[in-house]
Design a protein that fits this description.
single chain, 485 residues, mainly alpha, two-stranded parallel ribbon, flat
Length: 485
């Protein structure tokens, strides 16, 4: 029974679902004559088992004996009861979701359709005015708003069509207008999500044909609708993402950043968060591929978004995000800010490792960047659960040994390369392995005696570092080369 769909759903239901589902199963309105008493008994038995440690509790033989103690085992009876209960639970979930998403505006739309079918023009007009007033009081900042607008207009079109009004435009122009607004904003939102995702995962197809269709429609739509703030900003976000590889990407980013600032009080918190995430993703990716200036843009956004609370989930930061922020802040030489950030978030990270282990690793980074190398080494450990921290800690150790000109550097680099080679494929992806192997190979070339004081060789190695798309600690390697001139 543990593998059944029914038990999987019941085990995942929140505690507050119990009384509601119990009432649902008892209701003749929903159950009719579908053996509601047996369904209820099975549900209560399964629910009680959520807290049991008895491995036999959900065995079908045990369950049957508990539910039907005076009846011999009848083949298929329990299975049919489970199937009926599963259908009832699904009906309950549908009803619960509809109630959760239900708004007065949705009720008014339903009433408009009902009164249209009943041909009651007075009540149609009454409900139309009420719904229109509600929509007028809302900020038009999301596709759903425009969808409800066009649904309202479409209901009026339906009513006029059924009423046989020969001299009317059947409200078709207004319906088309609202649908255009809905389509344009929804299309821009989805296009931005797709392009932003594509920046970090090239397996996500950019759907060029679909985007080209949007490009063709843009001039026509924007001529009419560019004054609507949310469309204006999403259009700017779309143009920004499309310009990622173009020469004017920096100018477009600054325009987008300024426009977002201008509409800070116009857009909803949800849209601001989404659009600022697009800005952050754009800057972070430009920084990762080595474009000058974007490191400071990205750090500035991280600082602002931390203050707004946009980077937290249930009051905590993902450990990967926490480490990225620390590294970025240290590269910006914001040492005091970094130390305070570390202390403020010491116990506020979540991920695959312990919060203390992640804090210690990032504190060792802080000590490394502030040239407290002994303190940095003392905090490094081999006990990380997450392979990312295992590898990063070993790489940081190598950087410390390089900075301190330790005799242990060469054997540690050899051991690190073997360690990377032996990592299971499932625990560490090929791209990350390649980035770390390239780091060792280039560091070996940098530390050769013939590099020091030879500008031509330094220039060639620096160009090799910049051109390498798969390379860890690229900025640190470039710094070391610059110091060797």
């Amino acid at each position: 029974m543990r593998a059944s769909k029914l038990l999987k759903v019941i085990l995942r239901l929140p505690p507050d679902a119990y009384p509601a589902l119990q009432r649902f199963l008892q209701s003749p309105y929903f159950q009719g004559l579908r053996r509601a008493d047996e369904q209820l008994a099975l549900f209560e038995y399964l629910w009680a088992g959520r807290a049991t440690e008895d491995p036999q509790y959900f065995d079908k033989e045990v369950t049957y004996a508990r539910l039907f103690p005076e009846q011999p085992r009848f083949k298929g009876k329990l299975e049919k009861l489970m199937s009926r209960l599963f259908r009832s639970v699904e009906a309950f979930l549908v009803q619960r979701q509809l109630e959760k998403d239900r708004t007065e505006r949705q009720d008014l739309l339903a009433l408009l359709s009902a009164y249209t079918d009943l041909q009651l023009p007075g009540l149609v007009e009454l409900r139309r005015k009420k719904l229109a007033n509600q929509l007028d009081q809302m900020t038009p900042d999301n596709p759903h708003h425009f969808w409800e607008r066009q649904e309202l207009e479409r209901r009026i079109t339906e009513f006029q069509s059924f009423s046989g009004l020969r001299d009317s435009d059947l409200n078709l122009p207004a319906t088309h207008h609202q649908f255009d607004l809905y389509y344009l904003l929804a299309k821009l939102e989805l296009a931005c999500q797709l392009l932003a995702r594509h920046l970090f995962d090239f397996k996500v197809e950019p759907l060029d044909d679909s985007l080209e269709a949007l490009d063709l429609l843009e001039p026509l739509y924007l001529k009419k609708y560019a004054a609507i703030p949310v469309i204006q900003v999403y259009h700017q976000a779309y143009q920004l993402l499309r310009s990622f590889w173009s020469l004017d990407h920096r100018q477009r980013y600054i325009q987008f950043r300024d426009l977002l600032e201008e509409h800070n009080d116009t857009l909803s918190e949800e849209h601001l968060k989404t659009l600022q995430t697009i800005a952050r993703s754009f800057c972070l990716r430009q920084y990762q591929i080595g474009v000058a200036g974007y490191r400071s843009y990205t750090f500035e956004l991280y600082q602002k978004h931390l203050l707004r609370g946009w980077l937290y989930h249930k009051g905590r930061l993902l450990q990967s995000l926490f480490s990225n922020i620390v590294t970025l802040a240290l590269r910006e030489k914001a040492y005091d800010w970094t130390r305070q950030f570390l202390e403020d978030h010491r116990d506020r990270t979540t991920g695959s490792d312990t919060a203390e282990a992640v804090y210690n690793y990032n504190l060792s980074q802080y000590y490394f960047y502030t040239q407290q190398y002994d303190a940095a080494l003392n905090l490094l450990s081999d006990s990380y659960r997450d392979p990312y921290y295992k590898v990063s800690a070993k790489r940081l150790e190598i950087k410390i040994l390089y900075e301190t000109e330790s005799d242990l550097l060469d054997p540690r680099m050899d051991a690190f390369k073997i360690f990377i080679y032996r990592l299971p494929e499932g625990s560490f992806n090929r791209r990350s392995k390649e980035m770390n192997r390239n780091f060792i190979d280039l560091l070996r070339q940098i530390k050769l005696p013939k590099t020091l004081g030879h500008p031509d060789r330094i220039d060639k190695l620096a160009e090799k570092v910049r051109a390498s798309p798969q390379l860890s600690d690229k900025e640190w390697l470039l710094d070391k080369l610059e110091l060797m001139r």
